[in-house]
Amino acid sequence: MKPTCKECNLKYERETGFFYGAMYVSYALMSGILIIWFLADLLWLYLDALTLATLVVSTMLVLFPVVFRWARIIWLNFFIKYDQSYSLKKPAINA
User: Fold this and answer.
1) CA-to-CA distance for 14 and 19, rounded, in angstroms?
2) Between the CA atoms of 65, 69, 70 and 71, what dihedral angle is there, to the nearest 10 degrees?
């Protein structure tokens, strides 16, 4: 992830270890993938356990880069709200 936004120069890393909380968001998103596959199997697919596990793991591996970014963005949005005036400022915003 880049250190600042190219549009508004907002500094992403608020403090050392700021994105540790994004791990919990990532965990929740990955759990959602597991739950979706489990419900699909329970209601429609009726796969054996090994096939279901293979589908879940492969889906998680493919979607990991996307979920990694989404988790960081979601975590960042808990603390920083969008402000259109950021794009008018040129120096890096630290607050």
Assistant:
1) 9
2) 100
Q: Which residue has the higher pLDDT, 18 or 54?
A: 54
Tell me the pLDDT of the chain averaged across its residues.
Answer: 87
Domain boundaries, the chain: 22-81
Contact, 93 vs 8, CB < 8 A?
yes
In sequence order, what are the residues at sequence separation of 6 or more whose Cβ sits closer than 8 angstroms to the Cβ of residue 45? 52
Distance CA 61, CA 75 (A): 21
Query: What's phi and psi for 10, nearest 5 deg?
Result: -70, 130
Strand partners, 36: none
Q: For 76, how many CA atoms within 13 A lie in the half-sphere containing its CB?
A: 18
